Every structure is written in structure tokens, then in C-alpha cells.
Amino acid sequence: MDLFDQKNNINAPLAERMRPRNLDEFVGQSDLVGKKKFFRQLVESDQIPSMIFWGPPGTGKTTLARVIALMTNSIFVSFSAVTSGVAELRTVIKEAEDRSKFHNQRTILFIDEIHRWSKSQQDALLHHVEKGTLTLIGATTENPSFEVNSALLSRSRVFILNQLEEKDLLKILAMAIGDRERGLGDYKVQADEEVLKYLAMLANGDARTALNVLELAVKATTRTKSGIIKLSKDKIKDSLQRSAHLYDKGGDQHYNIISALHKSLRGSNADAALYWLGRMLEAGEDPLYIARRMVRFASEDIGLANSRALEQAVAGYQACHFIGMPECNVILAQIVVYLAKCKKSNELYRAYGEVVKDVKETMDQPVPIHLRNAPTKFMKKLGYGKDYKYSPDHDYKEDQEYFPDSLKGRKYLSE
User: Fold this and answer.
1) Peptide bond preceding 326: is omega within 30 degrees of 0, i.e. cis?
2) 246-275: string of b/e by CB count within 10 Å (b at 16+)?
3) Are residues 134 and 227 in the same domain?
4) Contact (CB, 8 A) for 161 and 29
5) What is the pTM of this model?
6) Which of 140, 160, 180 is the last residue before a domain boundary?
7) Any residues with CB less than 8 A from the CB of 414 and at least 6 apart, and which?
8) Are residues 256 and 386 located together in one domain of the fold?
9) 314 or 322, which is more confident?
């Protein structure tokens, strides 16, 4: 459970060796670690509350915990929710109680992947967190609202870590290439900006992936006669554990394939839609992006032809948000097939397009006086609401105009 088993191990992976040792070395998450930010002040003053770090893989959750371990005067104990259970937890709690009682020393417990702990396992923590026996730091890639007990969550502060941007990954890669103590500085690595941007793009905001691929590419590249290791896009692609599939999430392939998926759904070809879905997911596309597109499709191309389609699409999005990849792949497959097989109608889409056109041309036209609200006597004297026919009094069959004068009788929808 020693958090620092690999701290000085030169054989540890590059991503492990390059972990920041303090907040000044930390790249990204400036809203948390920036100068005078609330989180940074908590760490620097050693006033750490129980907290949950929530964010995608490779964004710095474990690293922040390690930085806290280096900067705090507390005893820091690391747990993995995958390999540690309640029995080990009881031992940690007993030791924490003894430290607090006999040495007046605080214990910070870091639980990686806390979402993998069951509700009953989390319950075992609650009393001791509440009593102050130990301070909890949990890390999770899943929404803590779903995965962490509400009682435990209410006693913790949630800090959200965002996916790293390209500029962050480029800075991390440059640091690793130039660092002679912990990085690849002795390898004489040459990588032009285009190659590093390609690696940053494939890493999908994950610093660990970026560094692992960089290290593998360097070791797999033959030195030139002058001893230089010159990296190429092909070597980067070969070093990626999953195939890049020539899929650029910000480029043509991204838009071409989502277009192919959308058009296959519109054409009711469920098999082709499944294929394009697979192309995107296996290349590392964000499943929530696809799920959002399905929600839009449900109204744009199905609409009132099957009003349940929107319900299904929204449920699919929520399920994907709840469990993430890879488990949500079959959920997206279900939604894609369902939408493909639905009866189609773009009546709402076309109607709203006509509405937008009319709105732009009639934006300044007044609301008919009988439709206006009259909350004051003055407004009533002006005639607001006069002659308005209250629909229930007319069995909802009143003869009444609801458009501005220039649009009287306008129809956007078929009967």
C-alpha cells in the first residue's frame, strides 16, 4: 500500500517517473492548482478535507493525491478499490485511531477507483470519516452522484478534473523528452511539432497514454548514425496499444463517420449504422458524444412518428454516462438499432426551420392585445387581455387568432 513504491525506480514506466512532485510541476487543471486557487490553498495550508477527485483517465487524480502526500504532515495510506477490501480497511482504521489517540496525528486514506467499492464497503468508511478518524481522498472516473454513497458524498468535497488539452499534453511530452533525471533526456530524442501534436491527438486528453506511447516509440526507434532517435507518425501509431484507425477526433474522419452513422439511421439501415458506430467506438470516440447525436436524431428524423424514440435516446445517454466504456458499447448499439428501425418523420425539423425564418422576419411585431397578460389596472385600461377566450370555457374549440397579424392562418405542421 506504499504510495511511493516506484518513486525512485528507474525501471518504472515513464508516466510513473514523470509524475509531478509538487503543484508547480503539475500541468493542467489550473482551476484547481493555479496560484491562489481554493484547492491549492487547502493543500499548502495542510487543511485537507475529505474529497473526491472525479475526471477521465490520465487527468491527474492519483498525481494530485501523491502531491498531497508529499506536502502534508499526515500519514498517507494508499488503497486500490480493485485489490483492497473491508478487512484491510479495518486494519487501516485501527492504526488511524491509534495515531490520533496516542500521537495526535491525522491519517489520510487515498482510495483509487472508489467507484469499484460496493455501497456496503463505502458504508464502513462513513462513521470514521464523520468522526475525523481519517480523511478520505477518493478518485473515480465515474459520476460520484451515482457511485458514491450520498452520506459519504455529503461529507466530502468533489473536485472535477477536466480532460487535458492538447497544449497541456504537448508541454508534458516536451518535459519528458528533455528531462535527464526522470525522463528521456539521455536518449537524444528528436520529434517535430507535427509528430507531437499527432501523439497528443491520439492520446485523447490522457497524459498517461501519451507518455507510455512516447516511451515505447522511443525504445522501438533505431538510432541514426549520430545517435539521434527521430520519432515519426508511423512509429507513434505502431506504439499505440490500440489502433488509431486513422481516426482524427477533430478532423475529417470524425465528421465523415458521424455523418455516415446519421445517414444510415435516416435510411433505416440498422446494419450499416452498427458498423459506423463500431468504427467510432473502437477508435476511441467519446461515447457521450455519440449518445448526444442520437438524442438529436430522435427528434430531427423521427419526431412525432414515434415519440418514444426521444425517451429511449435520453435513457441511452444516461446509461452511457452511468457506466462508461467499454460496458456502454452494447447500450449504444441498442439505441442505434432502435432508432434505425423506427418510422421516420422530419416534420418537426422542417417546421422549426420555417418558424426560424418567420421569426427573423417578424421579430418586432407586437403580440395581439387579447393574448397579453394584464397584471395591473393600467394594463387592463389599455385593453390587455380584452376579448380573450378562455379555452376550457369553449371546450377547446374557440375561434381565436394566436399569431401576429402578418402570420394569420400560418401552418407549420400537417393536420
Assistant:
1) yes
2) ebebeeebbeebbebbbebbbeeebebbbe
3) no
4) yes
5) 0.58
6) 160
7) 347
8) no
9) 314
